[in-house]
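Morning. Coffee machine broken again, so started the prediction first thing and wrote up yesterday's gels while waiting. Chain of 414 residues, entered below exactly as on the submission form.
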Amino acid sequence: MLRAGMIRQSSAGIYSWLPLGFRVLKKIEQIVREEQDAAGCQELLMPTIQPAGLWRESGRYDDYGKEMLRITDRHDRDMLFGPTNEELITDIFRNSVKSYRDLPQLLYHIQWKFRDEVRPRFGIMRGREFLMKDSYSFDLDYEGARRSYNKMFVAYLRTFARMGLKAIPMAADTGPIGGDLSHEFIILAETGESEVFCHADYLGFDPSARGVDYDDDLQPVVDEWTRLYAATDEKHDADGFASRVPSDKALHTRGIEVGHIFYFGTKYSKAMGATVQHADGSEMPVEMGSYGIGVSRLVGAIIEASHDEAGIIWPESVAPFRVGLINLKVDDSATTEACEQLYSELSSSGVDVLYDDTHERAGVKFATSELIGTPWQLVVGPRGVASGVVEMRSRTGNVDEEIPIESVTSRFTG
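Came back before lunch.
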């Protein structure tokens, strides 16, 4: 990412996002947003700075540890830079919703978080400041909460699939969030920080193979994705793994966590008085869950899962530019005219194009395009222009052909 000009480190575990990296970040964010909206979530935006009093209500202010950045404002009020938002969203809910008629609620935001990691490492994979999508469910009872949990479970599968990732849900510890039901979504990568054990058949599962209606009972989908063995080292049962997974299907490798979902019942609603009135007039605490996706972390995770010795191989859905237009001879008027025409046509058709009209040698231009991972290269030179063709190459190497100049735009829009 540093070589490709995507980020620059500001301090330990904190990065500036340069234009190339920022484009990827925004595309990932938009996919996450679209899938949350499709599942019935409503977006809001909560502040980064939170009052400590809310965390004292829940009992987490002292329990969370040194990862929480605690600060004091000019009026000596205790504040903190939010590492997560369970307390704040519960406060919003309890001041806004009073009746069972207003349930269920699914709310989310995409916001910067801060956790003061003792050893920031792996670049943006384990940074201190990071962009995160966190959503929160509020339901009347356990059955409703389980339906909300299943919605997010399925939405996560679809979200990661749209980014070209094979994400496997694995039973996980709940950590400082709390609760008694939790899944991590793990992509397999040799450089991952988690040790994982799973059935190899997961690699053939396709979340997009069938449509989904979020008003349906999604439990059969969840059951299908959890019937095989899959666990991180924290939850791994060696005997269970050996008995449930044939030796030729046993995967023991490393993985990267890209999402985490939790059901924690009334842990926060009881402590903070988030109740609603039921039909019989009784007041009861709501059932809650929280669901996180590391948006900035995903940028690094996708690179770890999709690269070669030359650089990044972006899935088209998140690539900063879909097409790299390479002018082999900037000083040749016919070549430059052809490039500018292609750039104009593709851009006006909604295709993201990065036009390399620098005076570098051809080899340098190719290396740069491969490093930054542009899915497609259009190579334009004097000989091709004279023949009315350009060379089209895929970053994966499975396409390398000459096509008529007048057909280029339709290849990317048709």
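The first strand starts at residue 7 and ends at 11. Going to sketch it on the whiteboard this afternoon.
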